[in-house]
Amino acid sequence: MEVNNLVISSRIRLARNIDGIPFQTKKKDAFIDVAKAVEKYFGFYTAEIAALNEPLKLALFEQHLISKDLTLNVANGIIITNKQNNVSVMLGEEDHIRIQAISNGFNLDSIFDIANSIAEMLENNFNIAKSPNLGYITSCPTNLGTGMRASVMICLPALTISGQIKTLKLPKKITIRGAYGEGSENEGGIYQISNQNTIMETKDEIINKVFFTINDIVKTEYDAQQALFLQNQDFVIDNVMRAWGVLTNAYLIGSKEAGKNLMWLKLGECLGILKFKNKIVDELFFKIKPATILVKDKKNISPLERDKFRAKEIKEKLLQNKI
Fold first, then answer.
1. Other Cβ atoms closer than 10 A to 234
2. What is the rounded distance in angstroms from the CA atom of residue 97 to the CA atom of residue 30?
3. pLDDT band at 313 (very low <50, low <70, confident <90, very high)
4. Which superfamily is assigned to 3-222 in CATH?
5. Dihedral, CA atoms, 36, 39, 45, 50, nearest 10 degrees?
6. Dist. CA 191–CA 270, nearest whole Å
7. DSSP structure class, residue 67
8. d(CA 40, CA 32)
C-alpha cells in the first residue's frame, strides 16, 4: 500500500495579521512593506492583483497558488511567489497574510519548516497580532491559535465511483472538501483533507492528526479498489479502457469529461491495468484547467479551441508516458 500513489500534494498554510490594521482593509498601501520584506529576505517575485489579467488570476487559482478571495481584491491584494511556484504569500486575503508552501506527495513536516521560516521573519519585523491565551489572532475564529491549516490533495477513484465517499468517516476536527476547498465540487475524484480548526492544538498535533487520517483513508481506498475489482472485474476493465480510448482519441474534450475519464485511468493505474511513467495522470488533472490552458497557449482562444487544445495535450502526454 503506497500512500504517494494516491496523494498528489501536501500544503501548509499559515494565517497572520498585523496588529492595528482592520481585517479586510481596503487601504491601498496596507501591505507594501510586508511585500518588500519578503522580497528582500527570500528573493521572491511580487505582483499586485490589480495588475494581473483575468486568465492569469484564474490560472493561479487553478494551480492553487492563490485563493478565490484574493483574485477579487483589486484594492490592495498582492501575490508573492518563488521561482518554483511552490511557495506563495497572499496579502490582503481574509487574513492580512497567508503563507503557503506546497510539495508533491505526502510531505507535511518539511513544508511546514519552509512556511514557518517566512512567518518567523515577518514576526521579527512586524507587529503580528497575537494573544497570550488564544495564540495568533485571525479573521475566522477556527484559525485562532497556530493559524495553521495542513491539507493533503488526494485522488480517491474507487470511493468516488462506488459512492462510499459520502459515508467516509473522519476524525473530529478533520474535514474533506473538493479539490478547490470549501464549497467546491469533487472533480475527477480529487479531494482536500485538512484540519478544521487550530485553537488549542499544536503544530505537531495537527500534522500528526492529518498524517494518520490520510493513512487510514488510503487503506480504505485500496480496500474499495479491490472490492470493486472483485465484484465486477469486466466492468472495471471496460471503463478503464473506454477512458483510455476517449482520452487518446477525442478531438474535443471539456475539463469535466476529461476529469471523469482521468479518474478511471487513475483507478486502472492503481490496479495495474495500465502503467505510466512519473505521475502524469495526477499532473494532467490540473494542467487541463480552462484558464491554465489560456495562459499556456498565450492566446485568447475560444472555448471550442480550448477543448481542442485540451484533447491534443492529453493525448500527447498519455501516449508519451504510457509504459
1. 7
2. 11
3. very high
4. Glutamine synthetase/guanido kinase, catalytic domain (3.30.590.10)
5. -10
6. 17
7. -
8. 12
Residue 307, sorted as left (phi over 0), alpha (psi -120 to 50) or beta, turns out to be: alpha
Dihedrals phi, psi of 219, to nearest 5 degrees: -60, -45
The span from the CA of 293 to the CA of 285, in Å, is 12
pLDDT (tens digit, 9 = 90+) per residue, 124-152?
A: 999 999 998 889 999 988 888 999 999 99
Mean pLDDT of 235-253: 98
Mean pLDDT of the chain: 93
CA–CA separation, 69 vs 85, rounded Å? 19
Asked if 86 contacts 131 with a C-beta cutoff of 8 angstroms, the reply is no
The closest of 119, 118, 117, 88 to 101, measured between CA atoms, is 88
CB of 76 closer than 8 Å to CB of 25: yes
Bridge partners for 97 per DSSP: 16, 91
At 294 the pLDDT is: 83
What global pTM score does this model have?
0.91
The answer, yes or no, to whether residue 1 has pLDDT greater than 60, is: no
CB 6 within 8 A of CB 155: yes
- Return the C-alpha cell found at 234: 469486466
Least confident of 83-97, 258-272, 285-299: 285-299
Domain residue ranges of the chain, discontinuous segments joined by + = 3-222, 233-321
